[in-house]
Amino acid sequence: MSQLGRLVNVSVKVPEEIRNLMRKVDVNWSEYLRETIETKIRVEIAKDAARRLDEIRERTGKVPTEELVRWIREDRERSLK
Predict the structure, then answer these.
(1) Is 81 helix (H, G, I), strand (E, B) or coil?
(2) Tens-digit pLDDT profile for the chain (81 aa)?
(3) Which of 5, 47, 49, 76 is the most exposed place for a label (fewest CB within 10 A)?
(4) Of 42, 45, 63, 64, whose CA–CA distance to 53 is shortest?
(5) Could you say which DSSP state residue 8 is in?
(6) Residue 1 in contact with residue 31, Cβ under 8 Å?
(7) In angstroms, rounded to a whole number, what is the distance separating the alpha carbons of residues 26 and 23?
(8) Are 35 and 1 spatial neighbours (Cβ–Cβ below 8 Å)?
(9) Helices (H), ranges, the chain
């Protein structure tokens, strides 16, 4: 797990029955929840980035293939100089 700084407390309420079951299994629940939260954050950030890219694509429209080929050729010519 990556440490982003000092740790703070976050409380989670679960039904008593779940808490009793949690005590019966050998799991470091704090570590498990930290990793789960971090994974969820990464997923949501990726979804947001994809949504933003889709919005940009919609605004920019399509570029003709001929134009792309011309840009690639120009870039190659610049890099050879």
Answers:
(1) coil
(2) 456 789 899 999 999 999 999 999 999 999 999 999 999 999 999 999 999 999 998 888 888 899 999 999 999 988 887
(3) 5
(4) 45
(5) -
(6) yes
(7) 8
(8) yes
(9) 16-24, 29-60, 65-80
